[in-house]
Write a structure and sequence with these properties.
Blueprint (H helix, E strand, L loop, with lengths): L1 E2 L5 E5 L2 E5 L13 E3 L8 E7 L2 E6 L3 E6 L2 E6 L9 E7 L2 E6 L4 E4 L4 E3 L11 E6 L5 E5 L2 E6 L2 E7 L3 E8 L2 E9 L3 E7 L3 E3 L2 E3 L3 E6 L10 E6 L5 E5 L2 E5 L7 E8 L3 E2 L1 H6 L1 E3 L5 E8 L9 E8 L4 E3 L7 E4 L5 E10 L9 E7 L6 H74 L16 H19 L2 H5 L2 H14 L8 E6 L3 H4 L4 H21 L4 E7 L6 E7 L9 H5 L2 H11 L3 E6 L5 E7 L9
Parallel strand pairs: 28-34, 35-36
Antiparallel strand pairs: 1-2, 2-3, 3-4, 5-6, 6-7, 7-8, 9-10, 10-11, 11-12, 13-14, 14-15, 15-16, 17-18, 18-19, 19-22, 20-21, 23-24, 24-25, 26-27, 26-29, 29-32, 30-31, 30-33, 33-34, 36-37, 37-39, 38-39
Helix pairs in contact: 2-3, 5-7, 7-9
């Protein structure tokens, strides 16, 4: 229902739009005569609004139309085949807001219709009613609850209810509204300010009061609400039209108790309190008002300091505020009460002074001793750090020296391979020429060992030296294959009566899982060579097993086990040799530990363990 500029009463129905012939005379109670504005009886009108001096109608299936006399002019949608179900209209200054049953809220500026930016309503929300303005607070009554849009943000104020109608509680205040719901009664909502100060941050929230059958409402199903004269509220329910007149007077608020180091009376609290350092404080209040039960009051506590900073707390039903561990200085605490009609009481204010703490001589003395201890500890830590840094630099120097040694080995091996073996190949070719008669040279006797055999033997020995100096298997096929080759090659150099059975155990894909630098791998290879040589020389074993694995910590484990006579690294003979010293020295370069123990069959077990650590400092 709406009234046009000519004073006609407009009525929208499911069968079209009707208008009265003359203005309604409530005093005389005259009967109105209504006529159909257009001949279209299938026009399902759901909303009527006056905008820019014209009548706009929202309907199901046809969207938004403008009425010019008896003509209906289609405004939106402007694309055929896209019907819109408009259920609410609201004029907001020079904008027309359009609420739909399935597509949210749109805005019409007189030229075109576009969605309202920042509105993220659920897809199935029906926007039954719109009130307010985008410039301060815009209320949306939807099938999913009551929403408010302010400061560029859409918030859900009342959830899990079918909000049918919303109107401002006062034309002068956009922050209060009445909301009628289907099944939940009538609500009154008051928005609370938010903001950030030095004392903290509070988000703006809403204070909600409910009026239902407990307050005498005829039905929980309310579908419309309107403001009448003298602060009267008219409510359309499923059982008829009801009226409600809010209470006019503010509630009374009083202090019932204050507690600090002791209990204070209300007079003492209002006169101001002086509290000791680090003392907690609590204040209790009570409100009274007609038609409001004690549990229906809302309380808002505000805390401020002498610098003018203040912060308001959230609305609460608890009439108590506790403050703990306040810093020395002056504070004030203020509380307001709100009755069922959300009418605000006069504030009650309590001023506090928190004293400074006495000078802590004992704590200062203990703190001074602790500071001296920390200084000593810091000095010791610094010296240890310097020593640790020196050790790390020394280890890095030793590792660099070992790497330089390996580079020199590779250079010598490369020179032997490229120069010496080439010279030997030329000598071999010359020896092949000496074995043939003719050209004035006699043939070499076939019964004498030929020069070629000697040269081949020398070449083989040079190749072995090159391989020992720079193992090609390590760079070509990986650490696992190089260790297996080292074991087999060392055994093959032994006399036939001293050779023993070998077994190499390695998990599949070990080289892909290794997190070792090339420098660490060559040191492990050299340690394994030395350990295998010791077994060949001293153990008299008949069976040797070499195991390589990656433990769960991601490190590296090598175990060399034999069934020989065993080995005691603490013996005088072991300490006199250089082999164990070389092994321990190489192991320290890569942060590895080596150990010797007795095996399961009585022989010896050599183990090299390296815990998984990043390789950055060894690279």
């Amino acid at each position: 229902i709406a009234e046009d500029n000519a004073g006609r009463l407009l009525v929208g129905t499911a069968s079209g739009l009707f208008a009265s012939r003359k203005r309604t005379n409530e005093v005389e109670g005259s009967t109105e005569q209504f006529v159909r504005v257009t001949d279209d009886s299938s026009w399902n009108v759901r909303a009527i609004c006056l905008f820019r001096g014209a009548i706009f109608v929202g309907s199901f299936g046809r969207g938004l139309d403008r009425v010019d006399g008896s003509r209906r002019i289609a405004i939106w949608p402007d694309e055929p085949g896209k019907p819109r179900d408009v259920v609410s209209l609201h004029a907001d200054r020079d904008r027309l807001l359009i609420g739909t049953s399935d597509a949210g809220v749109f805005i019409y500026d007189g030229g075109r219709v576009s969605p309202v930016s920042g509105f993220n309503l659920p897809a199935d929300s029906v926007v039954w009613s719109i009130e307010g303005s985008l410039d301060d607070a815009l209320w949306l009554a939807t099938s999913r609850g009551l929403y408010v849009y302010r400061e560029g943000r859409l918030d859900l104020v009342i959830e899990n209810c079918d909000a049918r109608c919303v109107v401002r509680a006062s034309s002068a205040s956009p922050d209060m509204a009445w909301c009628a719901t289907a099944g939940c009664g009538l609500f009154k909502v008051r928005l609370m300010p938010g903001g950030t100060t030095d004392l903290g941050e509070v988000k703006g929230v809403a204070m909600i009061s409910k009026i239902d059958t407990e307050q005498g409402l005829a039905s929980q199903n309310t579908f419309g609400v309107a403001l009448g004269q003298t602060n009267l509220v008219w409510i359309g329910t499923s059982r008829g039209v009801a009226s409600y007149r809010p209470g006019g007077g503010p509630p009374l608020l009083a202090i019932t108790g204050a507690t600090g180091s002791r209990h204070y009376s209300a007079e003492e609290a209002l006169a101001g309190l002086v509290l000791g350092h680090n003392q907690s404080f609590a204040i209790e209040v009570a409100a009274s008002s007609s038609r409001t039960f004690p549990e229906q009051f809302h309380y808002v506590f505000t805390v401020g300091d002498s610098r003018g900073q203040q912060v308001s707390g959230l609305p609460t039903r608890i009439a108590r505020l506790s403050s703990e561990a306040l810093q020395p200085g002056k504070y004030w605490e203020e509380v307001r009460a709100y009755n069922v009609d959300l009418v605000e009481s006069d504030p009650v204010r309590v001023e506090l002074t928190i004293e400074r703490a006495p000078f802590p001589w004992t704590s200062t003395s203990l703190g001074t001793l602790l500071a001296l201890a920390l200084v000593a500890l810091g000095w010791g830590w610094r010296q240890n750090r310097k020593l640790s840094t020196t050790n790390q630099q020394l280890t890095a120097t030793r590792l660099e020296l070992a790497n330089e040694t390996e580079r020199e080995r590779r250079r010598i091996a490369r020179d032997l391979h490229d120069q010496t073996l080439a010279d030997l190949r030329r000598l071999m070719m010359l020896s092949d020429g000496l074995t043939q008669a003719g050209n004035g040279h006699p043939a070499v006797s076939s019964g004498t060992p030929t020069l070629r055999d000697e040269i081949e033997a020398v070449s083989t020995e040079v190749r072995r030296i090159c391989e020992d100096l720079s193992p090609s298997a390590l760079s070509n096929v990986g650490l696992a294959a190089a260790l297996e080759w080292a074991l087999a090659d060392t055994v093959s150099q032994l006399p036939a009566d001293k050779r023993f059975e070998t077994n190499f155990v390695c998990e599949e894909g070990l080289d892909e899982k290794l997190r070792l630098s090339a420098a660490a791998q060559i040191q492990i290879y050299r340690i394994a060579q030395e350990a295998i040589t010791n077994v060949c020389k001293h153990s008299s074993a008949t069976r040797v097993s070499l195991t390589v694995a990656i433990p769960a910590d991601g490190g590296f484990l090598l175990e060399l086990e034999d069934n020989g006579r065993g080995f005691d690294p603490a013996s005088r003979k072991a300490r006199a040799g250089r082999g164990l010293a070389n092994i321990r020295s190489r192991a320290s370069l890569i942060d590895a530990q080596v150990s010797w123990s007795t095996g399961r069959e009585g022989g010896g077990v050599f183990a090299l363990r390296r815990i998984g650590v990043p390789e950055s400092r060894h690279t």
